């Protein structure tokens, strides 16, 4: 009898919870990965994330082959694929690691129903977070404010386990075909090889350097965590002994995942009801200038150009660009969230929605609506020598650079009146 381990956001052998459990429970384990057409249909042919994931899947396949096994890779609809698998193979069990996003929850429920109807065991395990769902909560439900959540999170944190792969549980001497990117309708995008750095020197200096976009002062870990190429347990173990500031960023990630799981409507609806009636101006011309990095505000434009060129953006600059779109240009936060979702290498639904709602003042632990980032002050504080700006805006300081699309002082007054007049006062 065959047992399948379904890789999703866990593209690694090391410290993989569900994979470890399955190889201990069964002796004929076949690891698998599905290029899900429901997800891929929303991507463009040149989406650079597809190339990154494809390389990661190839690396995973090579890792299995190096220990005498192989990764079976599928392209299609997961429900149809599992329907076919259980009809053509004597499958006993399918293990995977838990997905907390709305689509993943719905998909997994459908697959579990199909499998259990055929007496195939389906189990999922906590792997991409330290605490999931309601594990960090109050008596009356989920925390909606970060600080008490983080306090409780830290109080619950114990020594973390490492889940080891039992190689003897893997099916040996198997060989599976790997579809090409072209087969799936994508073209390979050459890009600078991404690397993460969670060395002691980076983490010890993280609090002091993380807000300066011209410095290489962050870990560049987010894309690797997004696809589970590195274990969150490994990262938290390092962070808790090195940098509380860095650890807090990891806790923010879990806070937003818990919120998304508990309040899935927050993907498209303001978390706080009194903000749901806001009538955004949504000036399309302004939005296009913001997307292109041509607003005339250098720190904003540099960030957007970095995003468009690389699929990445420094976190401090993400906050600045988001505030500018919503509060200087009066554009719906959902427009910005969708653009980031289209471009970001490390796009992660819970964090992206959570942070955009934070910028708009509509979310859980939201910044108050009257907190409006001044892009000039942000530049003076975090890029005083224009190093970051000059890197991404070669025409900065010349007549070729556009003038400011709005007057910030006037835009600030306008947005404050906008919120005051439209917020529903309970």
From TrEMBL:
Keyword check for Flavoprotein: yes
Annotated residues for binding of FAD: 206, 218-222, 246, 249-256
UniProt-listed InterPro entries: Crypto/Photolyase_FAD-like_sf, Crypto/Photolyase_N_sf, Cryptochr/Photolyase_FAD-bd, Cryptochrome/DNA_photolyase_1, DNA_photolyase_1_CS_C, DNA_photolyase_N, Rossmann-like_a/b/a_fold
Cofactors required: FAD; (6R)-5,10-methylene-5,6,7,8-tetrahydrofolate
GO molecular function: deoxyribodipyrimidine photo-lyase activity; DNA binding; FAD binding
PANTHER family cross-referenced by the UniProt entry: CRYPTOCHROME, CRYPTOCHROME CIRCADIAN CLOCK 5 ISOFORM X1
Protein keywords: Chromophore, FAD, Flavoprotein, Lyase
Pfam family, one: FAD_binding_7
GO-annotated biological processes: nucleobase-containing compound metabolic process; response to light stimulus; response to stress
Record flagged with keyword Lyase: yes
Residue(s) at site: Electron transfer via tryptophanyl radical: 280, 333, 356
Co-factor: note: Binds 1 FAD per subunit.
Family statement drawn from the similarity comment of this UniProt entry: Belongs to the DNA photolyase family.
Coiled-coil regions listed: none
Gene3D superfamilies: 1.25.40.80, DNA Cyclobutane Dipyrimidine Photolyase, subunit A, domain 3 (1.10.579.10), HUPs (3.40.50.620)
Name used for this protein in its record: Deoxyribodipyrimidine photo-lyase
Chain ranges of the Photolyase/cryptochrome alpha/beta domain: 1-130
């Amino acid at each position: 009898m065959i047992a399948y381990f379904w890789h999703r956001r866990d593209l690694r052998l090391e410290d993989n919870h569900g994979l470890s459990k399955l190889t201990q429970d069964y002796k004929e384990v076949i690891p698998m990965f599905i290029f899900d057409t429901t997800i891929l249909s929303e991507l463009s042919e040149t989406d650079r994330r597809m190339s990154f994931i494809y390389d990661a899947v190839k690396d995973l396949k090579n890792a299995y082959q190096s220990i005498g096994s192989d990764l079976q890779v599928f392209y299609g609809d997961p429900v149809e694929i599992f329907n076919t698998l259980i009809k053509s193979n004597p499958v006993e069990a399918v293990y995977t690691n838990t997905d907390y996003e709305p689509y993943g929850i719905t998909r997994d429920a459908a697959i579990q129903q199909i499998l259990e109807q055929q007496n195939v065991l389906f189990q999922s395990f906590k792997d991409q977070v330290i605490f999931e769902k309601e594990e960090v909560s109050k008596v009356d439900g989920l925390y909606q404010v970060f600080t008490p959540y983080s306090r409780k999170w830290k109080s619950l944190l114990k020594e973390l386990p490492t889940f080891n792969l039992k190689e003897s549980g893997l099916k040996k001497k198997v060989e599976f075909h790997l579809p090409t990117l072209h087969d799936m309708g994508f073209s390979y995008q050459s890009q600078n090889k991404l690397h993460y750095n969670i060395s002691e020197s980076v983490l010890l200096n993280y609090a002091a350097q993380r807000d300066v976009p011209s410095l290489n002062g962050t870990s560049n870990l987010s894309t690797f965590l997004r696809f589970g190429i590195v274990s969150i347990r490994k990262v938290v173990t390092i962070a808790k002994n090195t940098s509380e500031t860095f650890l807090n960023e990891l806790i923010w990630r879990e806070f937003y995942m818990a919120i998304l799981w508990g309040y899935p409507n927050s993907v498209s609806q303001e978390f706080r009801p009194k903000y749901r009636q806001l009538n955004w101006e949504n000036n399309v011309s302004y939005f296009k200038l913001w997307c292109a990095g041509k607003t005339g505000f250098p720190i904003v434009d540099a960030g957007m150009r970095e995003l468009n060129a690389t699929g990445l953006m420094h976190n401090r600059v993400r906050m600045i660009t988001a505030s500018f779109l919503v509060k200087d240009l009066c554009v719906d936060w959902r427009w910005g969230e969708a653009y980031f979702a289209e471009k970001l290498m490390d796009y992660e639904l819970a964090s992206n929605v959570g942070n955009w709602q934070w910028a708009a003042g509509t979310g859980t632990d939201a910044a108050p609506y009257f907190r409006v980032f001044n892009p000039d002050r942000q530049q003076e504080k975090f890029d005083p020598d224009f190093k970051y700006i000059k890197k991404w805006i070669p025409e900065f300081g010349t007549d070729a650079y556009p003038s400011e699309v709005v007057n910030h002082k006037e835009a600030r007054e306008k947005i404050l009146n906008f919120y005051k007049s439209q917020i529903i006062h309970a």
